[in-house]
Amino acid sequence: MELRTEIQNSERVRRLLAPCFSAERPGVYAKWQGAHWILAALADLGYPPGDTALHPLREQVLATWLDESYYVEFEATAKSAAYRRRGVPVMRGRYRRCASQQGNALWFLVTLGLADERCGDLVERLLLWQWPDGGWNCDKNPAADTSSFCETLLPMRGLAAYSAMDSGAAATAARRAAEVLLTRRLAYRISTGTLMHPEFAKLHYPLYWHYDVLGGLKGLAELGVLGDERCTDALDLLESLRVAGGWPAHARYYRVSANIALHHDSVDWGGTSTRRANPWVTADVLAVLHAAGRLRL
Fold first, then answer.
1. Is this structure's pTM higher than 0.85?
2. What tens digit of pLDDT does each residue of 46-70 get?
3. What are phi and psi of 85, to 5 degrees?
């Protein structure tokens, strides 16, 4: 608890929260300084749960992701038609929805001890939108019939976190989502065995809504399934990326700046390098390897 209090009172947290309580408060989902992303960062840092000072941010997030538009669905047969109306398009029986938004909100609200009965509404939406293969996708191409890793990871984590409070349908849905990653060994095509995307084999921090093997393994660790043999190749890859002192951040999705603008982050998360360890990436890797039984702390 002492460490959590130190995190709460840190300069890093002060800088993270500053935009959300400023006169020019960014939109809830403004990348990366809106309330949505700040709460996600706090949850990942280990900020102490149950802080009522965060309630205004929670209210912004829930008002956004439980807006009435997410309860409106309509059939669309073409990509252009999917953008013409407010609501969630359904194409060939699949909901085309960026479920990473509701999924991430569910995860950080539970993790930060800010969950209330409305988190059950987030779960209900995620269960409704889940695709037959177990994941989610916002692709408006009618032919798209396979879930997206980027849209599946965060709902999986959110449902897994929520299942600690209600282990019914949420736990089942989280396990189904895990199969999307596991059947592809977290980064490889089923058809050819080749890497699905170059970024999946790079390490990043923060990951935001993106995906890489470390993010996938981190999510599966929360489900307690790193012992599945289909995680082996990703774990081997992760170990192979070690440099002197730990693991690097190969790339990043942010620019450090206190100015409110697209893709600005108010704090520095250690930068990028191919040879220098990044402390945030290293901490996540060590936690994953420990959970996988490959590291004794």
1. yes
2. 999 999 999 999 999 999 999 999 9
3. -125, 155
